[in-house]
């Protein structure tokens, strides 16, 4: 039986430094993600490295989905949601991006101010999430309900597939980058691996134990990201006509993204009644 202090600790608000960190990151994500996705020409001319139209909107989708995740923390202020799901996912994403950026540093113009901002922001986010990952290393008691067996199996399967593909993009970019509707260089393959590895981490955490709020949050993030990716790819291809729609592999890639969007929506719907009863 958990102690009264443990129960109160689970309902506690996030510490103020984490709130400030989430607020600053949200403002940056709104600016960067919004410009990349909705104003690609403006963003491309000011970006840290050269971007193609597909990569511009794809990065925008990633940042806007990250904005949704941090916005949930700012709205709910739930310490348990931060410690059990958001901080681990934030740590995976920022750590992978920072490591890849250091390994691919020749792709950056070190004389530009934006390059210094890029490395400074990701270093700060990586250090901050690392601190809170350690700070929350002891499990926080939450009233969690076991997921239906079918959802546990699905999330385990999703974590495995996303993890394998994410590590493939990271370690073997030339090979795994071939399974993509548009050409990717090593830098983008490895940067995009952060998205898949973050999704794998979140799915694996939920497959073990989850509250209704955590299921809702993860489902909404997944739905947002997948939907924006699909919309972005279609919008860009209508303009540039570069994707070979006669290729089964391209249809399979789009179908996999659509499946993730459907699964995200299903998670959101499945958690609604449980959240209302909490």
Helix and strand layout, with pairings?
Layout (H helix, E strand, L loop, with lengths): L3 H7 L5 H23 L1 H5 L8 H24 L2 H25 L9 H23 L13 H23 L1 H4 L9 H23 L3 H29 L7 H30 L1
Helix pairs in contact: 2-4, 4-10, 5-6, 5-9, 7-9, 9-10, 10-11
Written account of the structure:
- With 278 residues, the chain is mainly α.
- The chain has one domain.
- It contains 11 helices and no strands.
- The two termini are 19 Å apart.
- 40% of the residues are buried.
- Mean pLDDT is 90; it is low at 1-11.
Q: Helix tally? A: 11
The total of beta strands comes to 0
Distance between the termini: 19 Å
Biggest β-sheet: count, sense, barrel?
Answer: none
What would you report as the Rg, rounded to the nearest angstrom? 19 Å
The SS-based structural class is mainly alpha
Shape: globular
Low-confidence parts: 1-11
Instruction: Give the SSE order as H and E letters.
Output: HHHHHHHHHHH
């Amino acid at each position: 039986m958990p102690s009264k202090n443990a129960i109160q600790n689970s309902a506690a608000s996030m510490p103020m430094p984490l709130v400030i960190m989430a607020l600053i990151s949200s403002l940056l994500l709104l600016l960067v993600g919004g410009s990349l996705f909705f104003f690609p020409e403006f963003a491309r001319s000011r970006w840290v490295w050269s971007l193609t139209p597909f990569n511009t909107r794809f990065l925008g989708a990633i940042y806007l989905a990250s904005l949704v995740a941090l916005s949930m923390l700012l709205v709910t202020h739930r310490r348990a949601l931060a410690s059990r799901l958001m901080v681990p996912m934030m740590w995976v994403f920022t750590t992978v991006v920072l490591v890849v950026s250091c390994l691919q540093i020749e792709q950056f113009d070190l004389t530009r101010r934006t390059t210094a901002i890029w490395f400074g922001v990701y270093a700060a986010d990586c250090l901050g999430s690392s601190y809170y990952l350690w700070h929350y290393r002891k499990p926080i008691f939450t009233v969690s309900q076991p997921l239906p067996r079918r959802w546990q199996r699905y999330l385990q399967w999703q974590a495995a597939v996303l993890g394998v593909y994410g590590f493939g993009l990271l370690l073997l970019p030339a090979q795994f980058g071939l399974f993509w509707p548009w050409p990717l260089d090593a830098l983008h393959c490895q940067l995009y691996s952060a998205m898949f590895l973050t999704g794998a981490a979140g799915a694996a955490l939920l497959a073990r134990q989850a509250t209704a709020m955590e299921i809702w949050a993860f489902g909404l993030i997944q739905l947002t990201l997948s939907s924006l990716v699909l919309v972005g790819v279609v919008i860009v291809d209508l303009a540039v006509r570069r994707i070979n729609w006669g290729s089964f592999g391209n249809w399979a890639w789009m179908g996999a993204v659509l499946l993730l969007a459907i699964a995200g929506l299903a998670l959101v719907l499945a958690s609604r009644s449980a959240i209302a009863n909490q």
